[in-house]
Amino acid sequence: MSSTEFTDPDAPPPTDSAETPVTPTRRTFVATTAVGGAVIAGGLAGGMSLFGPEEVAAAERPPSSSVSLTVNGTRRTVTVDNRTSLLDLLREQFGLTGSKKGCNAGACGACTVLVDGQRVNSCLTLAVRVEGVEVTTIEGLAEGDRLHPLQQAFIDEDAFQCGYCTPGQILSGVGCIEEGHTGSPEEIREWMSGNICRCGCYVKIVRAVEQTAARK
Known about the structure:
five-stranded mixed β-sheet; 5 strands; elongated; disordered N terminus; 216 residues
């Protein structure tokens, strides 16, 4: 009685020698590679690292810098991530939440503060770039219980509704007055065009800036 034999096409021809063939077959090569790769992958997945602990810690730690600045008359020194914006520094580390994060792209003016007396969008200003400067936020504009004249004018003229943009509007208005761009309502509108009021209180905002500038 005969039987059907199935042979491996990749296996070397049989020899009379009792020794195991030295040359691996394609099948044994693929199997060995697969098993070896699984062992390596398993080792890395199990927590093994190609780098030492110091190199790993350095790679995970973001670059940072020490920054010293004066905020509302108080000198502050802080270590910040180099990617931190001035807005996030003021709000998250100093707790000065009067400056609002609106668009976070410099298009609405809700985050406006004064840096050495000049108007800037704090969301676009890196904290590491304000070393040694003086920053004024809405919290530092009044003198104790005495409001800044423009703050009082906003109340008198009812120049706000929801109030979200108001801190940026007031700081921008103060800068506009100090820069001398208040010769007419049209000039005020032009120089404060970067501050958006979603409630549409522009007429009263211009009036408040105009009256404050006239009393100066």
